Amino acid sequence: MSSTYNSNAYNFGFLDENTKRMLRRALLKAVAIPGYQVPFGSREMPLPYGWGTGGIQVTAALLGPNDVLKVIDQGADDTTNAVNIRRFFGRVAGVATTERTADASVIQTRHRIPETPLREDQLLVFQVPEPEPLRTLEPREAETRTMHALADYGLMHVKLYEDIAQYGHIATSYDYPVMVDGRFLTSPSPIPKFDNPKLDRSPALMLFGAGREKRLYAIPPYTRVESLAFDDHPFEIQRWEHRCAICNAGDSYLDEVVVDDRGTRMFVCSDTDYCSQRSDNAATEEAA
Amino acid sequence: MLAAFDHPVFDSQRNFRELLQAMARPAMPRTLPVLPPAPAPATPAAMAVLLTLCDTSTTVWLQQPHDALAQHLRFHTGARLVQEPAEADFALISDPQTMPPLTAFALGDSRYPDRSASLVLQVEGFHPGTGYRFAGPGIRDTERVRIDGLPERFWTERAALAPRFPLGIDLYFVAAQNVLALPRTTRKLED
């Protein structure tokens, strides 16, 4: 795939150098102000908004010829979105790609954090549809900006409280709001709340790009990330009664898959790389 | 007229990745992989940072705006040089001992704290493991480093900005081939 990059056809990484510099300046400010949404001039990309244009632009500003890129969509390397983005960067940057989490230097993700723990030398880039955690509660950007300036997050606590009053528990299961370094209320992008603990004090730098909303933000390594909760209703992640039907993992995020027209279901790992590594290891052990 | 990067696309990308890691892991020196020529009083490491990040959409303030340096920056980046520190997106501090107070630079707006200055300070050297202790986002426990060549008032001025977070100034120290960043979130501990 790396041989397909034609330096006469595209600038390296598709974006022009001025755009990359703008993104790089914004990324540095984002890291300096953890969880704060930095506005940037989002470009038109050869994919529609909603297909990860924010993540793609962040990745394009990062990539160099020696990077190894992994792209996942809901944990899977083999879905349309992931395959297309991987192929896109193969063509416009000629970078090596991989499906193995441990081999990647840059991982672009839609809606999951890999199960395999990340390292300090890896970068995780999130595709974000709605960067503003308060948007469903307050539609005006000028208002939400002011709320962030004043750290006025009472509205979000009221929303979570109303969940408890109505359902007896906090009903938010994905895009569960977090406080970054005790200051900025931040959307973790629609990852399942199962992944929220992986945001806290992560060894890897995490970058978030929202193309349509023209915002990017960051969570630096080893930064305190707390999921909002109440003393009498502490934060909890999802648990399953099942294990993965393929690799028998009991610690990973499971997808429920309907396998026939009579409603038979199976539960499998959402992280395809994690699942296949485990299956391969089990197969090797059996053979040995 | 001196040249800029030999390979503008790849050299600035490699330098940027080190700057990003420097900002993400404060108080830890990183090595800049590509150093371009630089007219005095700018050092090659400072020029590497400016060429990587500045262009026609940024303003730059030079503490010592020598003609050759000003022309070099204008020619290679197209950046607008400004007279007032408060107008600068980037400021090159080539003599920290006589630098203006930190409050002379833009701290950002409470709704847009990113509209704040980034300073590139040419210092004498870094000595990890000795000197002041730092903590904050990006630092696992604490990190100790001594930065040579700063006036003592610098730390008082910087500490005075801390309560104004998220407003603040982000700092890149350069010495020889190394860069060390202190974002506004990094706290100098008293001990």
Q: How would you characterize this protein structure?
A:
- The complex is a heterodimer of chains A (288) and B (191).
- Chain A is an alpha/beta fold.
- Chain A is 28% helix and 17% strand.
- Chain A is built from 7 helices and 12 strands.
- In chain A, the strands form 3 sheets. Chain A has a 7-stranded mixed sheet. Chain A has a 3-stranded antiparallel sheet with strand order 7-6-10.
- The mean pLDDT of chain A is 94.
- Chain B is of the alpha/beta class and 191 residues long.
- Chain B has one domain (8-185): Rossmann fold (3-Layer(aba) Sandwich).
- In chain B, strands 1-9-8-5-4-2-3 form a 7-stranded mixed sheet. Chain B has a 3-stranded antiparallel sheet with strand order 7-6-10, with no helix packed on it.
- The longest helix of chain B is centred in the first third of the chain and has 17 residues, at 8-24.
- The radius of gyration of chain B is 16 Å and the shape is globular.
- The N and C termini of chain B lie far apart (48 Å).
- Classes of the chains: A alpha/beta (288), B alpha/beta (191).
- The interface between A and B is large, with 43 and 40 residues.
CATH homology superfamily of chain B: Bacterial phosphonate metabolism protein PhnH
Low-confidence stretches of chain A: none
N-to-C series of helices and strands of chain B: HEHEHEEEEEHEEE
- In round numbers, the mean pLDDT of chain B is 97
Low-confidence stretches of chain B: none
Radius of gyration of chain A, in angstroms, nearest whole number: 20 Å
Report helical residue fraction of chain B.
10-25%
Show the largest interface. A-B, 43 and 40 residues
Q: In the residues of chain B, how many domains can be counted? A: 1
Q: Distance between the terminal alpha carbons of chain B, to the nearest Å? A: 48 Å
**What separation lies between the terminal Cα atoms of chain A?**
35 Å
Largest sheet composition of chain B: 7 strands, mixed
Query: What is the structural class of chain A?
Result: alpha/beta
Beta-strand content bin of chain B: 25-35%
Give a count of the beta strands of chain B, DSSP E runs of length 2 or more. Answer: 10
Count of discrete alpha- or pi-helical segments spanning 4 or more residues of chain A: 7
> What's the pLDDT, averaged over the residues of chain A?
94
